[in-house]
């Protein structure tokens, strides 16, 4: 199975990608994980990426494309993968097709996770992360027992820069401008299946599983 998850920030792509990749026994390839590893490691790429990410902007294509190309050539991705966060625009989708052509492969399915914009803003802007253990609370959905204090370890909770409401709304605007055209691109290729990404995680997973099966 070679598949892609697309959808706006906060639609649950990361959660669903983790679950689905585990169930399918294929690697989850997430550009977000790659970027965060570089940022936390203080690499030169991480410094460049953080400047874009903190503004809610996207990391330049040439950096992302090279990362993905190398990752898909690794042994564990030979028999399948689940891409989360790539491609994010039509140009990257065309690059991905060329990468797969070179490997003698093709995509089986693209699953679009659809979510209401105000729901996304609520999900992301309400998150509070622990400075110590990185556990994430939510002011509405999973509030800590004591305000500003992590239930897990007692560490200080804070709001990440990219979770601030104004940044979230900017990220959604960027998504509409640059990533939504992917829907039309993959519709034309005949491999896009859209699902409702709201509601219980298990329900969304079942919808995603059905969508992936329909794309094989």
Layout of helices and strands:
Layout: E1 2-6, H1 13-24, E2 28-30, H2 31-41, H3 44-55, H4 61-72, E3 81-84, H5 90-102, E4 109-114, H6 117-125, E5 127-130, E6 136-138, E7 157-158, H7 165-179, H8 181-189, E8 192-196, H9 201-215
Parallel strand pairs: 1-3, 1-4, 2-3, 4-8
Antiparallel strand pairs: 5-6, 5-7
Helix pairs in contact: 1-9, 2-3, 4-5, 6-7
Describe the structure.
The chain is α/β, with parallel strands linked by helices and 216 residues long. It is 50% helix and 15% strand. The chain contains nine helices and eight strands. Strands 2-3-1-4-8 form a five-stranded parallel beta sheet, with helices on both faces. Strands 6-5-7 form a three-stranded antiparallel beta sheet. Helix 1 crosses helix 9 and helix 2 crosses helix 3. The longest helix is centred in the C-terminal third of the chain and has 15 residues. The termini are close together.
Compute the separation of the termini in Å.
8 Å
Shape: globular
What fraction of the residues are assigned to beta strands by DSSP?
A: 5-15%
Biggest sheet layout? 5 strands, parallel
- The sequence of SSEs as H and E is EHEHHHEHEHEEEHHEH
- Taking all residues together, what is the mean pLDDT? 89
Low-confidence stretches: none
Structural class: alpha/beta
What is the C-alpha radius of gyration, as a whole number of Å? 17 Å
How much helix is in the residues? 40-55%
Number of helices: 9
Neighbour order of strands in the largest sheet: 2-3-1-4-8
